[in-house]
Design goal:
seven-stranded mixed β-barrel, single chain, 2 helices
């Protein structure tokens, strides 16, 4: 027989809340905006772990063994700040990779991926323990593939502008518990973008 107290006992500390997180993104290219930018990340997702599979036929059956690991694109939805500094930052980062104007050349980073790769950190925070991280996901060799636009509409009232940015990354590492770097102890979607050396 199912017992309510058994269920509540399994929800230690009230479970994990989806709105307790922080995001930090570090890009390697110096841009013409301020180096430390605070913004609100309205939403993001934890990276999905996908392992490919190989079907091996054996006497009328298929035996499955592990294939290659792949990572899906990672997206952050950002609430725009008043001067749109965050939007301009991501647009400039994209422009550094490939000119968005008439030129067919890259803008100062060359063809070396290391020149435009960054790092992203996503932390699930503990709402009861001073906002310390429960688990930290490090996304390595990150770069923006899509800096989405947003609709301008006379009929839109009582709404802030927000836009998604889609990133690709090559691999990730995971750190468990409070020993991971505490990028931000702010509950909710507080996040920062900083530009590294």
């Amino acid at each position: 027989m199912a017992r309510l107290n058994d269920f509540l006992g399994a929800l230690r500390k009230g479970g994990v809340r989806a709105n307790q997180f922080s995001v930090m993104i570090t890009a390697p290219v110096p841009l013409s905006v301020s180096r430390d930018i605070q913004f609100l990340a309205r939403s993001t997702t934890l990276p999905t772990l996908t392992m490919g599979e190989i079907a091996v036929p054996y006497r009328g059956r298929q035996i499955f063994i592990s294939g290659d690991r792949t990572y899906e694109a990672w997206e952050v939805t950002v609430i725009s700040d008043r001067d749109q500094g965050i939007l301009h930052t991501f647009q400039d980062w994209s422009n550094q990779i490939g000119d968005i104007g008439i030129s067919t050349q890259r803008q100062g980073v060359g063809d070396e991926p290391a020149n435009y790769y960054g790092t992203a950190v996503v932390q699930q925070l503990d709402r009861q323990d001073d906002g310390l991280p429960i688990r930290t996901y490090y996304l390595h060799q990150v770069w923006p593939t899509v800096v989405a636009g947003y609709e301008l509409n006379f009929e839109t009232n009582d709404a802030l502008v927000e836009f998604p940015v889609t990133f690709r990354f090559n691999y990730m590492t995971i750190a468990k518990g409070k020993t991971a770097d505490a990028m931000g102890k702010h509950a909710g979607g507080s996040a920062s973008v900083s530009w590294g050396p």
